[in-house]
Hints:
This protein is an alpha/beta fold. The chain has one domain (33-398). It has helices at residues 33-40, 49-59, 76-106, 108-111, 126-132, 153-158, 162-179, 184-190, 199-208, 284-291, 313-322, 364-370; strands at 116-120, 138-143, 211-221, 227-228, 240-248, 255-261, 269-270, 276-277, 297-300, 325-328, 343-349, 392-398. The strands form two sheets. It has a ten-stranded mixed sheet, sandwiched between helices. Strands 7-8 form a two-stranded antiparallel sheet. α2 (49-59) crosses α9 and α3 (76-106) packs parallel to α7 (162-179). The radius of gyration is 20 Å and the shape is globular. The two termini are 38 Å apart.
Amino acid sequence: MKKITFLVLLPIFAACESTTQPIEPQVSEVIKDTIVSVLEDDSNLPMDKKYNDLAQFLAGNSSTDGSGLKLLESEESWKSYQLEIEKLWKKTNAKLPVIKDWASSELSEVNADGGTLFYPFSGPDFLHADLFFAEYDHIVMNALEPIGTFPDMIEVKKDSALPMYMDNLKASMNAILNLSFFRTIAMADDFQSELDGTLPVLMHFMARTGHEVLYQERVGVMPDGTLSTELETLPDSTYIGNRYYFKRIGNQKVRTLTYFAVNLQNMAYVSRGGLVAKGLDTRGDFVAYLKGLDIKSTYLKSASYLMHRPTFSMIRDIILDDSDYVLEDDSGIPIEYFDEEKWELTFYGNYSFPISLFEERHQEDLKDVYQGEGIKNLPFGIGYQFHKGTSNLMLAKKR
């Protein structure tokens, strides 16, 4: 198998850190009030056509005459991008029905009645979140990649930066569509440009998977873990994220996706460039936010085996304590942490050894499980072992 060069780097965060004292988590019972009231009453729903216009443009989809970006589709850089992105999606499109059929069969109980999906270490991978958890009302994604800003594509074109913008977006899509995961170090390079974060990639995925993007806004985490859109009143140390409102075309159910660029390690993280990002042990505000989510399912894929380390025990414990279901490959939480008196485990695919980059994270106890009976078929490739027949997934259901 081709060796993958994959290092964990921390891109520039969306909000500055300040030297504050640890904040004790205060889990709020009203954390969802900021979105539930909107979703229960369509008249309260914020909407602006420009968000879907951008999503369709970034997806390479020809827009309607009413789009403010229609004229840009005559640019050679966009035409070339459209052709190349269709080629990139060709292999993925062939695999999508297989994954959807598998999810429909194996995750029917998991998807019943919607709920909240937590997807840490995700990058901007909306594609697999939607494939496996298509009925979920709310998706919360965390990773190191910055949140990104809403671009003015007309200004990008005026600055002669449109070709570079589209090239960087195509490069960002290449790994996830060909390998099924994002390469952090490569994305850090892609995002040092007009393409400054995950926003365009998330919007691209929403449009390509048949969704309409209704609105996007920035939200900040309050000390008690609730979210606020009144950012001008918040201190510089506040974690700022992007929240998206979207719905599947032909379906009236509005869903949300909230993405934060954060360090999920217990303690501070120091990048090679000298950037220091505080850890969860001093970010009680973000811990309170996570613990107030009412997580139904957690999804873990290509997670760099981070939760095999004691330095990621806090996020690991939150997942195990608060999730009803966990769907993961072997790069997620080690099997030893799933007490079979508390969890019902179902295994899919094949496992023998991690890729060479992570060979020290081998789980002999997991290998023993896969050499036994009762392992179910996994008809597609996913994760670091992305070839069909080499991948694995485990579904854990809390008893």
